[in-house]
Design goal:
72% of the residues lie in helices and 0% in strands. The protein contains 13 helices and no strands.
């Protein structure tokens, strides 16, 4: 909550982008004589919704995405199972799994991930619509819905789609900060999102150099001095570290330094 506070005002905007995307999709489809598109999207998603509702069968979910949080619930504490070092991959998103598993809803984490996948598609569509790229928005949405590998992962308890959503929203926040050079709020929001992405899956670290270098280069192109660029990078880095630190410390405590 402390990490979210400086960027709190930005999140309603990001939430509205996802919420309003359905209306934008219907409006765009009517304008372009694509009335078949929304029903087709719903039809494609239906089998994956059914898959998410079924009991989990994939190896990753059974071995650690659901097994380890369930063991934590049974023990009433975070602990390292003696025979399962996949513990290191259990992070931020799994904290949301805990109340769902406590309620006995074994399929709920998969449903949650599928919802996040749908939000990713609609967020991409809405952000591009707001920037005046209606054709690109349609191509992105159709491309995402037609990528069955993504939907297969999204309909399980695996966390990769949540990671993609957080990284995408972080890029949107950084781009918006370029349009608001006097306010550090969007940069702080990007730090929160990037830190949460690291908390979800440590492979987010592989994306950080490219994202931050592109942001610094873009900021310099707007005429900002290097002092301001480094100042914003420091804000992003500090907030990112604060959000990711609990999950790094968890592994260091039970497994040892990375």
């Amino acid at each position: 909550l402390i990490c979210l506070a400086p960027a709190w005002r930005t999140f309603p905007h990001l939430a509205r982008a996802a919420r309003d995307a359905v209306g934008s999709l219907l409006h765009t489809a009517r304008e372009r004589d694509l009335a078949w598109l929304p029903p087709l999207v719903a039809l494609v998603l239906t089998p994956f919704v059914l898959r998410a509702l079924l009991p989990p069968t994939d190896w990753d979910s059974l071995m650690y995405h659901l097994d380890i949080p369930s063991e934590w619930l049974a023990a009433a504490r975070i602990d390292l199972p003696g025979d399962n070092y996949h513990f290191i991959y259990v992070g931020l998103l799994h904290m949301l799994y805990l109340p769902l598993l406590a309620a006995g809803a074994l399929s709920a984490p998969a449903v949650l991930n599928l919802l996040l996948g749908v939000l990713l598609g609609f967020a991409m569509f809405e952000v591009m619509q707001q920037r005046g790229h209606a054709t690109a928005a349609l191509i992105a949405l159709i491309g995402l819905v037609s990528t069955t590998s993504l939907l297969l992962v999204a309909s399980t308890a695996r966390v990769d789609v949540a990671l993609a959503l957080l990284l995408f929203l972080a890029c949107v926040a950084l781009e918006t900060s370029l349009e608001s050079p006097r306010s550090p709020t969007w940069a702080a929001a990007a730090g929160v999102l990037l830190g949460c992405a690291v908390g979800v899956k440590f492979s987010a670290l592989a994306f950080l150099p490219g994202i931050l270098i592109a942001f610094a280069w873009s900021r310099r192109r707007t005429g900002s001095r290097w002092r301001r660029v480094f100042g914003e990078a420091a804000v992003i880095g500090l907030v990112l570290a604060a959000c990711a630190l609990p999950y790094v410390l968890k592994n260091a405590r039970f497994v040892g330094p990375p």
